[in-house]
């Protein structure tokens, strides 16, 4: 057995949770999981800094489900509340929950997120009345249920804030504090954030009690992503984008006789929803088969756009960062950053939507003069220069790639996460843990598992014992995301 890895059966997780992980072919903990699972089971508050894709969903769900399954929690009450900034992330967490809790007969969950569908609200109300033990919710919708008296959090034992920095960026600070006032002082609180600005540190001091701090370094983008940039003036951006969609794009690694890429399965990111709307309408005028995704759309509209994009009915998705953390599609061939993200983490999240499942991918960033300093910060993190593409014919001259005098004293709005995957307690395993690849097959594994007949308890134990003797030698090693 590899001494540099921590296997799930070496943690304090109970047998029912381990059985579900076995069926899903999850063997090895990621660093965030190795650092968090046992401390959460032992009752510690956690402040975790980790980007999307490091396995943090499982890092908090697995130990909490294990503790709930072991019992001694009030029946008919909400015992665990997971807060997420977007509906998409809440749905993703709920899907993971269904797989991890497969053998936990006494643990049920209910996703609660906004939308204009009255049937959706009735379904949530029904789940709450039946006594769901785990609630996965967006702040606004949860506040609505609290105000209507549909929800009692007085017996809550676990309070989780996932992507806390994104929630604060979206203006949910007051909602989070309002919710926190309704839960017991004894509640164990777990907070995860991709970045650690001052406002997150302040919130942590308000909500957490002597937390264990866990920091996982930001992973660099996959080598299969061919990154490049167009350095330009702001008015040239749309011209460059239109040129790309009219003439195609030839990545650096293209063969001499290889034609330009067909722009299908493309995501265009912008940090502002108004700009997303402008890009969408400009592409529609060019007859590009595209859709838009931003917070002004209703839940029904967002679900419809995402379904069409996933099924290939839409070729191009123009979106805010609402999609950067949560979309799980393996065949995205290109990501275009219409503007430079303010945080290195957001850049990694965005371009990480491509080059998945062993595929190649292309990432293009349009860098206007005022954002050159931001892009240089990204290059510093990557420890290399990103290829600068020549300006397309007819667009005009490109500016020099240097920080303008007006921006020379500017500072980033966020800060990079640094540090190794460890917490401030002695490691009882006495071994290091390697960062593994992100697991991209959770949904597929879940669906396959649900279609199979459940094994008996003895069969499951027997299977796991055999596997332990073989050193977890599955055909494909995977990690829980």
Can you tell me about this structure?
The chain contains 16 helices and 14 strands. With about 475 residues, it is an alpha/beta fold. It has 2 domains: about 10-215 and about 415-470, Rossmann fold (3-Layer(aba) Sandwich), CATH 3.40.50.300; about 225-405, P-loop containing nucleotide triphosphate hydrolases (Rossmann fold). The strands form 2 sheets. Strands 3-4-2-5-6-1-7 form a 7-stranded parallel beta sheet, with helices on both faces. Helix 6 (about 140-145) crosses helix 8 (about 175-180).
Molecular shape: globular
Strand order of the largest sheet: 3-4-2-5-6-1-7
- What is the residue-mean pLDDT, rounded to a whole number? 82
Q: Return residue spans where pLDDT drops below 50 for at least 5 consecutive residues.
A: 407-456, 465-478
Concise synopsis of the structure shown:
By secondary structure, the chain is an alpha/beta fold. Helix content is 36%, strand content 13%. The chain has 16 helices and 14 strands.
């Amino acid at each position: 057995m590899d001494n540099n890895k921590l296997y799930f059966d070496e943690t304090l997780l109970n047998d029912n949770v381990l059985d579900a992980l076995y069926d899903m072919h999850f063997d090895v903990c990621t660093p965030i999981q190795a650092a968090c699972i046992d401390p959460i089971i032992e009752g510690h508050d956690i402040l975790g800094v980790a980007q999307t894709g490091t396995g943090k969903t499982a890092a908090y769900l697995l130990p909490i489900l294990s503790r709930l399954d072991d019992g001694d929690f009030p029946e008919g009450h909400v015992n665990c509340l997971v807060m997420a900034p977007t509906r998409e992330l809440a749905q993703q967490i709920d899907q993971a929950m269904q797989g991890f809790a497969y053998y936990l007969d006494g643990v049920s969950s209910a996703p609660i997120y906004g939308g204009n569908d009255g049937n959706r609200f009735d379904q949530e109300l029904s789940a709450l009345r039946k006594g769901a033990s785990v609630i996965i919710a967006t702040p606004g919708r949860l506040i609505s249920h609290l105000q209507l008296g549909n929800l009692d959090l007085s017996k809550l034992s676990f309070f989780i804030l996932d992507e806390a920095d994104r929630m604060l960026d979206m203006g949910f600070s007051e909602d989070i504090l309002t919710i926190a006032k309704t839960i017991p002082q004894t509640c164990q609180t777990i907070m995860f954030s991709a970045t650690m600005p001052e406002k997150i540190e302040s919130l942590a001091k308000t909500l957490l009690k002597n937390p264990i701090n866990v920091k996982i370094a930001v992973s660099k983008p996959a080598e299969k992503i061919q990154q490049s940039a167009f350095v330009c003036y702001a008015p040239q951006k749309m011209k460059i984008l239109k040129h790309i969609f009219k003439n195609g794009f030839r990545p650096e690694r293209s063969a001499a006789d290889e034609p330009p890429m067909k722009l299908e399965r493309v995501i265009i990111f912008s940090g502002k929803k108004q700009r997303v709307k402008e890009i969408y309408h400009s592409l529609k005028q060019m007859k590009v088969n595209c859709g838009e995704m931003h917070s002004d759309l209703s839940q029904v509209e967002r679900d419809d756009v995402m379904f069409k994009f996933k099924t290939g009915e839409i070729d191009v998705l123009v979106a805010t960062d609402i999609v950067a953390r949560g979309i799980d599609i393996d065949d995205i061939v290109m990501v275009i950053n219409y503007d430079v993200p303010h945080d290195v983490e957001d850049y990694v999240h965005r371009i990480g939507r491509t080059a998945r499942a062993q595929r190649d991918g292309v990432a293009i960033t349009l860098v206007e003069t005022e954002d050159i300093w931001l892009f240089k910060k990204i290059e510093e993190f990557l420890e290399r220069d990103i290829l600068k593409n020549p300006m397309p014919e007819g667009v005009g001259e490109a500016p020099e790639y240097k920080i303008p005098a007006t921006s020379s004293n500017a500072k980033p709005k966020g800060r990079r996460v640094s540090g190794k995957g460890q917490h401030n307690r002695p490691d009882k395993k006495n071994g290091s843990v390697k960062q593994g690849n992100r697991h991209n097959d959770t949904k597929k594994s879940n669906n396959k598992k649900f279609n199979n007949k459940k094994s008996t308890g003895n069969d499951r134990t027997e299977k796991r014992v055999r596997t332990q003797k073989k050193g977890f030698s599955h055909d494909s090693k995977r990690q829980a995301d």
